[in-house]
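Sorry to interrupt, but I need a hand with the structure work. Could you write out one complete protein record for me, on any chain you like? Just paste the record in under my message, thanks.

. . .
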Amino acid sequence: MQSSTRTPKPSEPTALEKERDWFRSSSLLENRDARPGSVLARKEQQKGGFRLLKQRFLDSEAKRQFLFAITGESPSLAPGENERLERENKEKKAVLKEKKAEVERLRVEIGEMAKDNEQKHAELSEKVAQVSKLQKEIDSMELELARLNAAHPPDSRMTMAEASETLDKQTERLEELTSALGTADGRIAELSEALIARRARVAQLSKDRQREEARAAEVTKLRSMGDNHALQLADWFGRMNTQYRALLGIRDMSVENGRTTVEYEEGVTLTMDFAPKLVAADVTGTNADMTEAINAAISANDPAGLVADVLVRIRPL
């Protein structure tokens, strides 16, 4: 239901304006009486008029807003309200401009701070990585120190004087070993020369043995023909063979199925396999390393040289 109340035109005075005009006119009439006794009465009268004016203004404004709410019309501006709103808009625009400038300044400052923070974050991350690495190294060193402390208790540690004394003793021992090594090198050189001479002697005896074996074969042939000279040669060959074995320190020798076994007086046994050349050899009863001599003899197919080499290695000169 729509109300029939109409909005007063600007040319028609409102009730509030009528009351204002009445108050002004009555005040002017009363102010003509300048007696001091009437001042208090006029003051109370004006205060009452102000209260009445205020109450009527509030009632009028409330009725006006109520009518606008019922009819759905937009409220019209009261006299002077447009100027007030314009002043407020100017003030708010000025404040808004200041706020925008402040926001722009903060945005620029935040951008600079973001770049600075990014750089500081990268530096801090690098420092954190370095600290983590150093912490791991420190932990590893602490573990190693704990292990050393456990392995070397304080009671078993050397003092500087004891360490110096031990170092001096070890230095002297090293000098002695160096001197002994030089002596051993000289002895090895002598043994090498003696070994060469023994090999030459063994080679010569091998040739003599072959020659004597040929003679023994001839003696056997002549013996079968009844020649006493052959018997004498056989006896001579037997003696030479015995001397050869004694020279090489051979206690016994046997041949069976392509394997020759030589037993030395020192308790060492040399076993040689032939097919028909020397293909393998083994030495038992000694801790001496015979690998080099065995390989050399197999390569050269020199069993006699191997017999002599074994003797040289097991018998001191």
